[in-house]
Specification:
The chain is mainly alpha-helical. It has a single domain, classed as MetI-like (MetI-like fold, Orthogonal Bundle), CATH 1.10.3720.10. It contains 13 helices and no strands. Helix 4 packs across helix 6.
């Protein structure tokens, strides 16, 4: 009886998930393939004449290839931010877990505060202007690292707690210093959780809209192109939905491809602990 009930609940969950996630995505795909007249109806119907290629070219060429420039900016932002985030978070988590010290409690408080306290836009702009990085890509990269660091620290710390301290002692006996101990012994063991952090934070940074809008005015990212398209092409829904499709597919494919790795990395600490 319980087995049958679980089977029914599984079927219901699959159907609900399909309705919630697949139906909106299918609507976006259909709208992106319609012409301007049919797209203006905003109905869930098959295109009378598929115009995927034409709409794709129009979106790419719009506003002097703004989407291409935005993809380059978002790629640079995502790669640099996630790389810095992962390395710094792993190092902080290693120190907090292995050598907490008398400042460990205060640093833990700051890490938790980074998850709980909402970001303050005006003070952040003031700090960026004081350092001369406001409106620059390095400044936005630092902002993304700062905002995502707390989550990564907690993720890495939970995994590092499962690594035996005997490995540290053996490396120290062999003459390894702190940096060599971390990068040659500990860091390679964090592969599963590194993949999790990279995928989750890459999707987060790539899809970020607020931070580039406030801290990088004038330079478009992929999410800002959607904002610009919504204002410029209010009556051309086919181009608007094609733009949505183009900025949705990369993170979606990445998430689906690394889905198992994400789950493994999120649960690795709990399983080994």
């Amino acid at each position: 009886m319980n087995g049958r009930r679980n089977w029914v609940l599984s079927i219901v969950a699959i159907v609900v998930s399909a309705v919630v996630f697949l139906v909106p995505f299918a609507f976006i795909v259909l709208m992106a393939g319609k012409d301007r007249a049919q797209a203006s109806l905003l109905d869930f119907s098959w295109p009378h004449q598929l115009q995927f290629v034409r709409n794709f070219i129009d979106v790419v060429e719009a506003r002097d290839y703004m989407l291409i420039i935005a993809y380059i900016n978002s790629t640079v932002l995502t790669v640099a931010s996630v790389a810095g985030m992962v390395v710094l978070a792993a190092m902080v988590a290693f120190v907090l877990q292995r050598r907490p010290g008398r400042w460990g409690g205060f640093i833990n408080f700051l890490v938790l505060a980074g998850l709980i306290v909402p970001p303050a836009v005006v003070p952040t702009i003031w700090v960026l202007k004081g350092t001369g990085t406001f409106g620059t890509m390095p400044g936005l990269i630092l902002v993304e690292i700062a905002f995502g660091l707390s989550f990564c620290v907690l993720l890495f710390r939970a995994f590092i707690a499962t690594i035996p301290r005997e490995l540290d002692e053996a490396a120290v006996i062999d003459g390894a210093g702190p940096l060599r101990l971390f990068f040659r012994v500990i860091f390679p063991l964090l592969r599963s959780v590194i993949i999790t952090a990279v995928v989750v934070q890459s999707v987060t940074v790539f899809n970020d809209f607020v931070n580039p809008l406030y801290f990088l005015p004038g330079d478009p990212t992929v999410q800002l192109t959607l904002y610009n398209f919504a204002g410029q092409y209010t009556s051309e829904y086919n181009l608007l939905f094609m733009n949505i499709l183009l900025i949705t597919v990369p993170p979606l494919v990445m998430f689906l491809f690394f889905n198992r790795r994400i789950v493994a990395g999120m649960t690795a600490g709990a399983i080994k602990g």
